[in-house]
Amino acid sequence: MRVFALNCGSSSVKGVLIDTGSRERLLEMRIEELGTEDGRLVAGADVAQLGRIDTQAAVKRLFAELRSHAGSGDIEAVAHRIVHGGPDFVRPTELDEASLAGIEKFNVLAPLHNPFALEAARYAMQEMPQVPHVAIFDTAFHATLPPRAHTYALPPELARRHGIRRYGFHGISHAQVTRSIAHHLEVEPQTLRIISCHLGNGASVAAVEYGRSVETSMGMTPLEGLVMGTRCGDIDPGVLVYLLEHGGCDGAALNRLLNRDSGLKGFAGTNDLRDIEQRAQQGDEACRLAIGVYAHRVRKYIGAYAAAMGGVDVIVFTGGIGENSAPMRHRIVQRFDFLGARIDEDRNRDARVSTAQPIAEIGEPGMRTRLFVVSANEELEMAEQTEALLHTATAQHAKIPVEVSARHAHLSQATIEKLFGPGYRLRERAGLSQHGQFSAQEVVTLIGPRGRIDNVRLMGPARAQDQVEISRSDEFALGIDAPVRTSGDLRNTPGIVIQGPAGRVTLTNGVICARRHIHMNSTDAARLGVRDHQSVRVRIDSDGRDLVFGDVVVRVDPTFSLALHLDTDEANAAGVQRGDMAELLP
Ligand code: ADP
To answer: 2 has which bridge partners?
Structure first.
């Protein structure tokens, strides 16, 4: 699909034409210095001076360029980056008068960003009314933050009245980083704990635990957290009160100070790290301090987020500074041996990323935690999210058979023999819908610290590793905390005792609560407009217990038959009966 991704800020509008099939950027252009005498159009190495130009004229000009280069017939959708979706807009949303009005309500939360983007979206909709326009929100990726991470310690009534909470930003970038790294490592995002550092002019860190953002450094506004180009990031709120009461600042002056005159610019008079690094090398103390404070803040967040997730598998750098400044990356990750990460100086110095070569590894080989640089490509993420929304909308009402998995175990041949005797082979009781899989005649007993469960069915054939799948209710009965995991992802999972007729085995790990998922082959995936690892929502329409399930992971494999797999708790909550179908939601 060809999607024109539009990214509008207060002083520039960027347009990139993306082909989602080839993941190529077919056309890329930017109008800078809106509202000043220096307005200009930049396309690759070409720069055209435009003089004073406002948002409307800039959008018109970009579409004119687009038509002359690509012809408008080819373009199937326009994606708009919207910084703040508030608590209501947590997924890609097709724009019309009603949704635009709904988003406008949150302009007050992002006064420097949202009004310009929405104004640009309205002009773009006039320029190209024949295609869908889709809003992609920077806050949306962080909608999964748990209450302990998104709540400020203020009186709850006050916070509720004013919508004061951590929303988080740069979500499009953190989502893209997550997806790219998982793709590069050939694993599902649900298997990784990632700390994603987006270090551009604006900067934020996100803790992405098994595919979900669980912490991020920007807060209710994009001011909290890291030191940025012109923003101060974290500061004792008492300083603000002090400046208001004794520093001769009113609200507007404070806003200007914190957003425009602080951060790197506050230290060094410029927000360009290249200049600051050069001057620091020549001995400029203010620049040295700027670099020291900047790196220290990022380090502090990485340490904190590793603690919040109980560990980290991958640390990633992106954005202008994250991608280009090897010295800054070095300062940030030095002495991270305690986290299992060590930077490889040669790899770090030589790392070059681009849209053609988007990932470079900079950690020493063999370390537990891997270090990467990823080229920021927010427009590709916007285009892919747009395509997914439009395809899912087309496939809306597609029906998927529901299958309910009772508690069961997949065991290795060695474990089977310990439980049932030497040379024992599982005997098939009934075939399952997934090719070659069967439920066995054999059952075992699970013994946990609190209780035991008899008659737990084994599945065949034997697997390489032991895996026991139980429901949340079973966890209470057994006294075990099993994490929600995709089948096969058994790192850091608890163990259990299994009793069979010929013996008893103590597993040291392998107990999970299965992540709900849909099996399908690639033909189904194309028909339904979804891709492997995508997280989707499904609706179950049952007698009096209708339920929508989110966080359902798509798993594509040539051998899979189309089926939604729920565990017994989930199925009971939705009143699922044999033969029920689920409906894929946009
Ligand atoms: P934005 O958030 O506006 O998209 P960018 O992601 O382009 O910003 O990041 C801009 C920052 O990246 C600036 O501080 C710039 O100095 C820095 N930067 C770009 N290239 C380099 C480089 N080679 N070395 C150090 N810093 C760089």
So the answer is: 19
Which tokens in the block code for residue 424?
Answer: 């024992």
Q: What is the model's pTM?
A: 0.77
Under 8 Å between Cβ of 446 and 456: yes
pLDDT digits (tens, 9 = 90+) for 109-149: 887 789 989 999 999 999 999 999 999 999 999 999 999 99
Tens of pLDDT, residues 163-210: 999 999 999 999 999 999 999 998 888 889 999 999 999 999 999 999
Q: Residue 272 CA: which ligand 1 atom is closest? A: 16
Residues with CB under 6 A from ligand 1: 200-202, 229, 271-274, 277, 319-321, 324-325
For 91, 133, 143, 218, 301, the CA distances from 171, given in Å and listed in that order, are 11, 19, 10, 10, 17
Of the listed ranges 21-30, 562-571, 577-586, the one predicted with least confidence: 577-586
Beta strands in 334-485 (DSSP E): 359-361, 370-374, 399-405, 408-410, 428-431, 438-447, 452-460, 467-469, 484-485
Alpha-helix runs per DSSP H in 441-567: 472-478, 522-528
Contact 180, 198 (CB under 8 A): no
Q: What are phi and psi of 439, to 5 degrees?
A: -90, 135
CA of 291 to the centre of ligand 1 (A): 14
Closest C-alpha residue for ligand 1 atom 21: 324
Burial class (CB in 10 A: 0-12, 13-18, 19+), 174: buried
- Please list the alpha-helical segments (H only) found in 8-73: 55-70
How remote is the CA of residue 295 from the centroid of ligand 1, in Å? Answer: 15
Q: Is 346 exposed, middle or buried (0-12, 13-18, 19+ CB in 10 A)?
A: exposed
Among 227, 291, 324, 330, name the best residue to mutate to test ligand 1's pocket (greatest count of ligand atoms within 8 A of Cβ): 324
Closest residue (by CA) to atom 27 of ligand 1?
321
Confidence of residue 488 (pLDDT cuts 50, 70, 90): confident
The pLDDT of 474-493, averaged and rounded, is 90
pLDDT digits (tens, 9 = 90+) for 278-314: 999 999 999 999 999 999 999 999 999 999 999 999 9
Residues catalogued as catalytic: 138
The pLDDT assigned to 93 comes to: 93
Return the residue whose CA atom lies nearest to atom 7 of ligand 1: 320
Nearest to 497 by CA among 405, 414, 425, 415: 415
